[in-house]
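Need a sequence for this fold. Nothing fancy.
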């Protein structure tokens, strides 16, 4: 199994949106037997909570389910468990480095790093901006390119 973990600060807005959208893309590409998807937050504050209503609503508009999804905090073992850890912004990257510096095979990059000539390097936090549409558009582009990269990396 190829394992992908999306990470943001709270694990209620951006990374669960990416998780749900990427899982849908994996299904559309008939790769559900090869790729698994999860998400986690740097912080613990929302542990056990469902995605933010803003994330839920925009995904509902696109008929993407968030059923059963709950927030969790990143853990040390995630670096061993996952093949790709995909951060939403530079602060997440720095925080991840603070949690664990030494690791072997996991690729840790920002989502927008997968997009050639991306308009933004970071996915802005809609918890503060309120702009879930912007996040949806960026995450969609990011996930499409991430899937392309995984297909290339694994000859899928
Ligand atoms: P997220 O947004 O990182 O996209 O899930 C946030 C959600 C909650 C908080 C910060 C960011 N918070 O500070 O509680």
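Here you go.
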């Amino acid at each position: 199994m190829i394992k992908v973990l999306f990470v943001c600060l709270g694990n209620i807005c951006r990374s669960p949106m990416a998780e749900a959208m990427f899982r849908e893309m994996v299904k559309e590409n008939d790769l559900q037997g090869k790729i698994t998807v999860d998400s986690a937050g740097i912080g613990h504050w929302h542990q056990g909570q469902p995605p933010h209503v803003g994330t839920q609503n925009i995904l509902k508009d696109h008929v993407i389910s968030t059923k059963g999804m709950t927030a969790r905090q990143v853990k040390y073992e995630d670096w061993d468990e996952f093949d790709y850890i995909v951060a939403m912004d530079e602060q997440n990257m720095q925080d991840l480095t603070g949690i664990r510096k030494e690791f072997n095979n996991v690729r840790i990059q920002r989502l927008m790093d997968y997009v050639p000539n991306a308009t933004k390097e970071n996915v802005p936090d809609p918890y503060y901006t309120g702009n879930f549409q912007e996040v949806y558009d960026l995450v969609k582009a990011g996930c499409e390119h991430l899937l392309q990269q995984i297909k290339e990396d694994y000859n899928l």
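For context: Residues 26 and 72 are 22 Å apart (CA to CA).
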